[in-house]
Structure formats: structure tokens, C-alpha cells
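If your schedule permits, I should be very grateful for your opinion on a structural question. Please examine both parts with care and let me know of anything in them that strikes you as inconsistent. The record follows directly beneath this note:
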Amino acid sequence: MSFRRVVRQSKFRHVFGQAVKTDQCYDDIRVSRVTWDSSFCAVNPKFVAIIVEASGGGAFLVLPLGKTGRIDKAYPTVCGHTGPVLDIDWCPHNDEVIASASEDCTVKVWQIPEQGLLSPLTEPVVSLEGHSKRVGIITWHPTARNVLLSAGCDNVVLIWNVGSGEELFRLDEMHPDLLYSAAWNRDGSLICTSCKDKALRIIDPRRGTIVQVKERAHDGARPMRSIFVSDGKVFTTGFSRMSERQLALWDPSNMEEPIAIQEMDSSNGVLLPFYDPDTNVVYLCGKGDSSIRYFEITAESPYVHFLNTFISKEPQRGMGFMSKRGLDVNKCEIARFYKLHERKCEPITMTVPRKSDLFQDDLYPDTAGPEPPLEAEDWVAGRDAPPLLISLRDGYVPTKQRDLKVTRKNVLSTPATTAGGGAKTGGPAHLSTGPAHPAPPTIQHPDDEKMSEIMDELRNLKLLVKTQGKRIAKLEEQLAQFEDGDV
């Protein structure tokens, strides 16, 4: 006689979440109040970035992970946008490069100093201008160096080569209404988008074609989100006709009906999905909720299995999700979130309880490393490649990051164009492109190369002197006010 197994076996069934102690939080941060459904926070193994309130423009804070406690109000920010910042995303191939999207219709890419910000950063490495309305979504290509996707309220999706400042592809006739989300698949060959017209689209950006479309993925009028999971299926969150929050899993080979759909509750906060491709666990964080729900996605029915819920007292204004490279493998930590409150950022760890102190191979399969398998030119030419994997057995040890350099085409050999999108570079151009594939090689005298290096260094020193001069003048002014008794 066979007994049906009542409880499904899973090594993630007992995952539990725990908020860190108060002294390990980031306090006194004025989190942005802008009405936009993005996560407002981005994190990597070196820094946490948080969109903050700013007068006269947009700004975000970049803190080294170890700089916990109270953050001084005068702490320098990245403040080069003229409108509120709506989205930020760290480059997966360089932990010191971050992109930001803003209401000022631009996308800017920034190089953060290795030790963090010592003064306000106002000059981006490159400014990408191609949208006619505010830009609310940005996401880096997972496997090709310096390829960045942006989507704006002009219903246009643009794909950029950050290393040259060029617009690679423009998808401007596929979405009749506002885009809610855009995400790459595992090897970056496809993107999936969700739109205000309630349609879920799978798009080949290089061909400029829609591969699959589902007209009413969720019936509700509230925003939906979509992401790829590792086997090519698409996971969505949205609302039913009765305004109940839903999650669904779709097979791109047959989009008539979802292979799994679950109704959750009747809250009105948008569910932000965060997916771990190594463990196939998806975490759902609702804006305004005080909980994180997590589910395991499997190959057998019912495909989406509820695991547990982390519940806290305070509602979340946003959420950052740490990549696997930044986790503590010695504590069996499988995920870490950075929860934004009104005035602070609170890390939350997700741990699998294990008695053994040995490295847990089943929890930490090889994960995507920081080295990209492709250059932007390879991807544009039609090549695809899965991420290059690294082992976490001895913990992730970061390597020296290469500065990104924005290389321009020779304006004398190609006519300047004004139509479409373009880019402006500012400040010392240091974004790392790695081994680029240049056009025809030119013979350069060694003395010219040396002269170029000297000029670059001189430019950087001049910029540093200028920045420090402004800072000194500001401090002298404050000192004078104190001495005069004005403050």
C-alpha cells in the first residue's frame, strides 16, 4: 500500500527571515516620496544605493555596505539629474558602475570611487538622451558588457551601448501605452514587458519582433510585473478583475492559459518580484506591505509552491536585493533584502537552518560571476551566451574593478546625426569597457600614448582641485556664519 506524501520535500521549506540589529541599519535617510512603482534601492557586494529626497533635482545615496548607523545629512550624494530619480541599477559586471533614470528624460551612468563618495558626484561618465518623456525603467544586460535597456513614459524601449554612448535598438511601435516593467532572460536574447494595456509581451530586441503576446495576462487595472525564470518560463504578478493580487507562471510555447495561477489577498500595493535563478525561489515584496512572501518554482505541477512569509511591523517603501556574490555562505544565507522605511534602510537576511559548518553545495550551486562572456559588439552581431559561473565555496573575493572608458567614433569620418537618441559624456570618462572590438586599428606613436595619459591625469587632477575648492569655500562660509553668530 502506498501512502501519498502530504508534505512536499524541499530544502527551502524552513527558510526563515530575520531583520538585523538596529546598529547594523542605515539610519536617518530621507527616502524618496516620488509616486513611482520602482524598488528605490539597488545593492551589490560593495555598495547600497538609495533614491532620496532632493531639492531642485534628483539624487541618490551610495553607501559602502559597512557604513551602518546614522548617516549624516551632509553625506555626499549622486546629484546630476535635474528631475527626480525614478530607478537605479548596478552594473552586474562592474560593482562600481551604476545607472540611473529620471524624470528629466535622461539615463545617466556613474562611476563610484572604490572607497565610496567623498564629495557630491554631479558629472556622469555618460548621459544617454533618447526618450521624450520621463524614464522609469532601466536594467543591464545579464551577459553582454555595457548593454543597458531603458523604458520611458513615451512607451519606447531603448537599448544602449554604454561604452560608446550609442543607441543600439529602438522599440517604439510595440507598446500602445505605459510600460510597467521590462526584464531580460537568462542569456539576454529576449526581453519580457508588461504594459498598461494588460498585455504580456516577449520580444526579440535585436530583430525588433514580438515573439509571443498574451493580451490579458491579468484582468485588473492595477500595474503588473513580469520576469523570466531560469528555464525560460515567465512569472507575472498583477491583479484580478476583483482587485485581488495574483501571481502566475506562463509557458512561452503556449500562452493561452497560465500553467499556474494563485490569488493572494486584496491589498492594493504592487508586488515586486525578486528571483534567485540558483535556487529557483521567487520573493514577492509588496509596496506598502510589511511582509515578504517566498515561493519555489519547480518543473512539476503545481509549479509554484508557497514556502513561507517573513512578517515585520513597519511597511516597506522599497526593497533592494543582494546578488549571490554578496551573501555570507558560512551562515547558510540564501538571500538578503534591504528594506526601505520612511527614514532608514534595514537589511533582512534569509537563512536555511543547517547544523553542519561545512560548505553547503546544494544551497550554493555555481552562480553568475562578474565577468561578462560577451562584448556589446558580439551581442549586437547575434551571439548569445549564458553567464560565466563562479563557485562560492571559499566565499566571493572581489577583484580590482576596471574603470569604464566611453570611446567615441571619429566624428570626422562619420557625419553627425541629430535624429533619434544620443549621448553626452561628462567628467573624466572612466567607465570600463574591457577589451573592446575597435574599428580599423590606427598606428599610434608611443609618445602620443604617453601624452594622452598625462593629459587624462591632468584633467582628473583639475577636476579634483575644482571639487575640493568648492567644498573648502562652503566650509569657510559655514565657519564664518558660526563666528558671526548667525547659526
About this structure: The first helix runs from residue 376 to 380. The longest strand covers residues 304-311.
